[in-house]
Amino acid sequence: MARTKQTARRSTGGKAPRQTTATKAAKKYGNGPNVPGVGG
């Protein structure tokens, strides 16, 4: 699920750079839903 969301966000073409950063951070931390930026 998270992967699909990430792809969808990426499809936006960087509409919200913050979202992309949050996704990247989530992947880096490996928390995913725990990260407030992702929002689970």
From TrEMBL:
Where in the cell? Answer: Chromosome
Region entry Disordered: which residue ranges? 1-40
Q: What are the GO MF terms of this UniProt record?
A: DNA binding; structural constituent of chromatin
What superkingdom does the record give? Eukaryota
Q: Which UniProt keywords apply?
A: Chromosome, DNA-binding, Nucleosome core
Q: Where is the composition biased (Low complexity)?
A: 30-40
State what protein this is by name: Histone H3
Say which species the protein is native to.
Tilletia laevis
